[in-house]
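Project standup — Tuesday

K.O.: blocked on the structure for the chain from last sprint. Re-posting the sequence here as requested.
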Amino acid sequence: MPMYDIPEIREALDALWTGLRRYLVREGLPGLPQSLTHGSAFADRWDDPRLLLSQCCGHDIVHRYAGKLRPIATRSRTTIAGAIHFGAGSSSAQRRLIA
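H.V.: unblocked you, prediction finished:
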């Protein structure tokens, strides 16, 4: 599921998956894994035909995976007084600074 599968946030990602999976099963979607698989390259996950949900950056979804992956949601960043806000036109290096 996650594009940014780093050890520091794995516990939170696992908790997110547990809740999301519970909801999807209750809504009638069978065959979902009990837990996330950590450590694989995100490109390998995106090419997996069993992929259900994942994070993906905008560049990849409009270039390499155009027509293969479908966006279903996007995050929104709100500005905090005095904070620098990078919008959709910012470079990935800029976005990493505040991610």
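K.O.: great, moving the ticket to review. Residues 10-26 form the longest helix (17 residues). Confidence is low (pLDDT under 50) at residues 82-99.
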